[in-house]
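Tokens help. One example:
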Amino acid sequence: MKKFDIRNIRIRKVSVDDLDDRLLLINLYATQAITLIIGLIWIFFQGRNPLNLLQFFDDAIVLLWGAGFAAAVIAADLLISWWVPDEASDDGGVNERLFRNRPLWHIILMSFIVAVCEEMLFRGAIQHSFGPYWTSIIFAAIHVRYLRHWIPTGLVFSISYGLGWIYIRTGTLWAPIMAHFLIDAVMGLIIRYRRES
């Protein structure tokens, strides 16, 4: 039996182009599962029930907050991408690789999973401990691929702060989940169908 030697482990920088489609999806779903697990554990340690964060709402205003915020973000992002050169908002090609060849159902599924998992951790757990400002700093830092350029970093921070604000206003995670889902899904669909034409 061959002995395991930790000295044989080599760490190297990997580009998104080095990953095949299967590995890229495994990475996406694994990181989202880890995000959800950390969020649920954190909420339990806070002495709260995560299901209470997902209580359904009686008022359609929650839908308006989520959809309205998503529409504002999408409009701002499209305006920024119209005036800002591509290299100033480059994410290393991750979004392009994730969305460009996906069927519609998979873009919707990915967007929903990301929205639920990230909002459970960031708005549900971290924001309860640190407030929306520091949560947004952490949220921007976690989105490492945007940190090379200040425009996408500022946009991610602003979106996160806005998601935290609508969570405070509505009192339910469904508003930021809906907004996050709509932002990711619409931007994913834009990437998917813009590349076809």
Summary: The chain has a mean pLDDT of 88. Helices lie at 21-45, 50-53, 61-83, 94-99, 104-142, 150-170, 174-196.
